[in-house]
Structures are given as C-alpha cells and as structure tokens.
Specification:
The protein is mostly beta strands. It has one helix at residues 2-18; strands spanning 31-39, 44-47, 52-54, 57-62, 68-73, 80-89, 98-102, 106-109.
Length: 160
C-alpha cells in the first residue's frame, strides 16, 4: 500500500512539472509611456497601436518595433495625425534596455475647420423677350444723300 501512495505522489508531482514553462523566466515586454497634448486641449487622441485618451493625458503602449501615429480629433477642428518614432536603446550589464518615443510629448496644433461657404442663389428674374428685328428707319425726306465716293452716310445729314 505504501508503494501505491509513493507512486501516486511521484506521478502527481511530475504531472505538475509538465505544465511549467520557461516563459515565466522571461521579462514582460517593455511598455512605452507617451504624453499626448493638443492646442486646444480636449481633443480625442488615439494611437495607431490602440490606446487613446482625451488630451492632455498619457497612455502606456506596448513598445512597438516600428514607428506609429497618433490621430487627434476635436469637433469644429480639422483632424491631425502626428508620426511618432520609436527609439530602442539596448541595455548592457549595468543598465536595462530602454524604449523612448520621439517626439515626447506628442503635440498637435489643431486648426479650426473652415465652414463651407454658403451658396448664394441669385433671384430668378424672367428674361425679357428680345424685340423683333425692326425694319431700318427710313431717312427723312429733307436729308441729303451721302457724299459721292463715301461708303458711309454723312452723320450730320439730318442736322443741317
């Protein structure tokens, strides 16, 4: 009976070892603390990595391997995107590895949205009908005939 209990205890303890992983000795992935600011404050800032907040604020993001962007949005203002570079400094025996962002704080100057110009409609005016082509006026009877050799009539013909 003793042997059965010893074998059962040894089997149970070995079963617990199989669920142990070497991952528990690895350090957690580094995080990056990013400060987000805007002018005017109160904009919704969202990183392309997911986390976001209302400015001014700070977010903690997992340290990415590549640059990312921060999108700023505020009603009545044009949205803005700011690229952020990630700078990884490897550690050595005396210092741990570090991750920083450039720029930090991430700042966006939001421009007011230009309201669309109202379309001014001109009042509709009915078009006047064009008069029918009138026959050329007859020259007065006392008017002198045009001067000989002149292709144009004398402008002072009726005023003499």
């Amino acid at each position: 009976m003793r042997r059965v209990l010893v074998v059962a205890l040894v089997g149970a303890s070995l079963g617990g070892c199989s669920s142990m992983s070497w991952d528990m000795f690895k350090s957690a992935p580094p995080t990056l603390q990013v400060r987000l600011e805007s002018n005017p404050p109160g904009a919704d800032a969202t990183t392309s990595l997911g986390p976001g907040c209302k400015t001014p604020c700070s977010v903690s993001v997992p340290a990415p391997d590549a640059p990312f962007t921060v999108a700023f949005a505020l009603p009545k203002f044009q949205p803005a995107n700011v690229p952020v570079n990630v700078i990884k400094t490897p550690g050595d025996f005396t210092t741990p590895a570090s991750v920083t962002s450039d720029p930090n704080p991430v700042f966006a100057e939001l421009q007011p949205a230009v309201p669309p110009k109202p379309v001014k409609k001109k009042p509709h005016r009915p078009r006047k009908p064009k008069p029918a082509a009138a026959a050329p006026e007859a020259a007065p009877a006392d008017a002198a005939p045009p001067a000989a050799g002149s292709p144009f009539p004398d402008p002072n013909a009726g005023k003499r």
